Amino acid sequence: MKLRTLLAGAMALGLATGAQAQDDPVKVGFIYVGPVGDGGWTYQHDQGRLAVEEEFGDKVETVYQESVPEGADAERAITQMALQGADIIFTTSFGFMEATNAVAAKFPDVKFEHATGFMREHPNVSTYDARFYEGRAVLGTIAGHLTETNKIGYIGSFPIPENIQGINAAYLHARKVNPEVEMVVTWAYTWFDPAKEADAARAMIDQGVDVILQHTDSTAPQAAAQEANENGGRVFTFGQASDMEAFKPLPRVASIIDNWAPYYIERVGAVMDGTWEQQATWAGIAGGEVEIGEITDAVPADVKAEAEELIAAMADGNYHPFTGPINKQDGSVWLEEGETPDDGELASMDFYVEGISGGIPN
Amino acid sequence: MIRLERRPTPSRFWSAAAPILAVALTLVVGALMFAALGKDPFEALRAIFWDPVFGEFAFYFRGQLLVKAGPLILIAVGLALGFRAGIWNIGAEGQYIVGALAGAAAGLAFYPSDSWLIFPLMVACGALGGFLWAMIPALLKVTLGVNEILVSLMLVYVAERSLLASAAVGWLRNPDTVGFPGSRNLSRWEASANPELIAGTGAHWGVAAALIAVIFAHVLLTRHLTGFHIRLTGAAPRAARFAGVVPGRLVIFCMGFSGALAGLAGLFEATGPAGQISIDFASGYGFTAIIVAFLGRLNPLGIVAAGLLMAVTYVGGDNAATNLGLPAAAISAFQGMLLFFLLAVDVLTNFRLRAGKGVTA
């Protein structure tokens, strides 16, 4: 294809000039799905970018583009970053998967890092992800204790395995401490849409849900819960992706924090000393990628202690949130006593565990 | 005191000058906004308007301009016909989605055949899907007199929230991936792919279709009786009836034509630049095309220029966002200003400014 030849030519040109100026900083690009001010997912990736700047100072230059839709525009945004001399590009949403791989084919000397995906079609594409479900297990434990209506809600983004892992992990651990608990799931079909997220939260509160977990990126559900509490409600929430500390101590009683900074620093460092290699990373609480934010005093001390014990057990590698016996929703056996799933099985999870009602939209 | 006085006939001068003045005002106010954000306004305007066309990487960006402008022009040309007759199809975004879904579904039904007939079939079904989706507001308007603006707009959300969402996670989902939303990659399946016709230009079948549609609409408006009826209905609806225009038939024609073109745009996008039906497939082309239609003065040739200009603000806007760290919202505000100033300046087409006290009528 002629375009490829042209791009390759441009690449060669870029390499030639790059070789002349060895002291050029390493250029690090970030493609964000939401605005950096979303207070959640993208904000947290941008914190990672700032940490890279802090770590390497003059030796790096970072660029980013925010609110890039997960469609045809993504490929252009990534291509443009590569053309303009980025050495490594982090594409930080699942929906950038095909675009990342398509651009990677045209720029074999640029490193690509795709968050939460599984496609690595070219040797210059790595993927990285975090075991959010470990954090959900902790939040589920707290939720099971806090609920009085025995209804906990989960605002899902898309019915993909990442969300389903979270729903199952949260439910299993809530049920463990409160057998009466019921899980209410709403699909927002968006990663970031404050209006829709707020509607979902309000609808849940109207149904009697009093603890809300979210898998979407804005603080709108927190605000909706706060509003309900101001009007005499009793609703608890958890910060998502970012600490969302503005909503402490209530309704936000704890949070699940994505900490991408160590990974970004490590990978940019690898580009600098020429040791970057393709890999697929999936770290969790043990690796420090998933953190639980401050558990506020609104949570009883014994519940807090129980949550902290669970965190410690996962940090040591002594506990897997999906440890059998666990049945699937239809009653069939998923995991035998003491059995844990392998990563492939987790990454393709498409069923609810026993006890959750309703179907996964399909 | 300054007051507005209605002109007896719209000013031809201002009708032509309004888009130019609107662009100029956008440049000035946009530059002020960029300066207020602490960026060099000339750098920003250069990144938006100069770099995509003449800059270092123009060889790539020029192709991207056609990729962006193609669907905008294709949809806007269809909309403009209706708008000229006072028929307001606001739901092109929905017709775009339904066209893409119908075309993709028709093609995927034969997966993994490699028959050459598949792509033409998909194109036909894409047009048909958009046409039928537009027929809902059209028939409701003709039979029950329901306002087509509301119905066509509401149907956008039906298409996006239920049809597209269920297709991407359910009935059109790629069965080879594990639970991930999105259809098979249509641009990688040879039978359905809509590749660049000339490598490096960005011109795919959708761009070719846009060109054909522009020529067709231009000839229709200037040489054909239907075009005369459209112009007459817009200018003088009562006179049009005496001239033998059947309003219902015109509604069906304009809605159907614009729906079919929007459906085509969706199909070409799904098989080309987007490559698949994903949850985020609705990219707002159907709404932006409304701006393009008005910016182009509802004239097919003007729409070509307007579509390219809008494409420049998109491609250049992205360029400015990465290079200068401009927030995405600033780029959207800049694009919004264009429509805002156009509407504001357009007042001068139908009204003139008069100083002094008005004579009370």
Shape of chain B: globular
**Backbone CA Rg of chain B:** 22 Å
Name the CATH architecture of chain B.
Answer: Orthogonal Bundle
Record field, number of beta strands of chain B: 2
Average pLDDT, all residues of chain A: 89
C-alpha Rg of chain A (nearest Å): 21 Å
Q: Biggest chain pair contact, residues each?
A: A-B, 42 and 43 residues
Report the CATH C-level class of chain B.
Mainly Alpha
| Beta-strand content bin of chain B | under 5%
- For the termini of chain B, the CA-CA separation is 17 Å
Query: Which strand order does the major sheet of chain B show?
Result: 1-2
Helical fraction of chain A: 40-55%
What does this structure look like?
Chain B: The chain crosses the membrane at residues 12-37, 57-82, 94-111, 117-140, 149-172, 202-221, 242-268, 274-294, 301-317, 329-348. Chain B: Its main location: membrane. Chain B: This is ABC-type uncharacterized transport system, permease component. Chain B: It is found in: Cell membrane. Chain B: It is a multi-pass membrane protein. Chain A: Residues 26-299 form the ABC transporter substrate-binding protein PnrA-like domain. The complex is a heterodimer of chains A (362) and B (361). Chain A has 362 residues and is of the alpha/beta class. Chain A folds into 2 domains: 2-130, Response regulator (Rossmann fold, 3-Layer(aba) Sandwich); 132-257 and 292-347, Response regulator (Rossmann fold, 3-Layer(aba) Sandwich), CATH 3.40.50.2300. Helix content of chain A is 40%, strand content 19%. Chain A contains 11 helices and 14 strands. In chain A, strands 2-1-3-4-5-11 form a 6-stranded parallel beta sheet, sandwiched between helices. Chain A is globular, with a radius of gyration of 21 Å. Mean pLDDT of chain A is 89; it is low at 8-21. Chain B has 361 residues and is mainly α. Chain B has a single domain (38-326), classed as ABC transporter involved in vitamin B12 uptake, BtuC (Orthogonal Bundle). Chain B has 13 helices and 2 strands, in the order E-H-H-H-H-H-H-H-H-H-H-H-H-H-E. Chain B has helices at residues 12-36, 41-54, 58-84, 92-108, 118-144, 148-171, 205-223, 225-235, 237-242, 247-271, 285-295, 300-324, 328-350, and strands at 2-6, 351-355. Chain B has a two-stranded antiparallel ribbon with strand order 1-2. In chain B, helix 4 (92-108) runs parallel beside helix 6. The model of chain B has no long low-confidence stretch (mean pLDDT 90). The A-B interface holds A 1-3, 6-7, 10, 29, 35-36, 63-67, 69-73, 75-77, 79-81, 83-84, 94-95, 98, 158-161, 164, 189, 347-350, 361-362 and B 57, 59-61, 63-64, 67, 161, 165-166, 169-170, 173, 178-182, 185, 196, 199-200, 269, 273-276, 278-281, 283, 314-315, 318-319, 321-323, 325, 327-329.
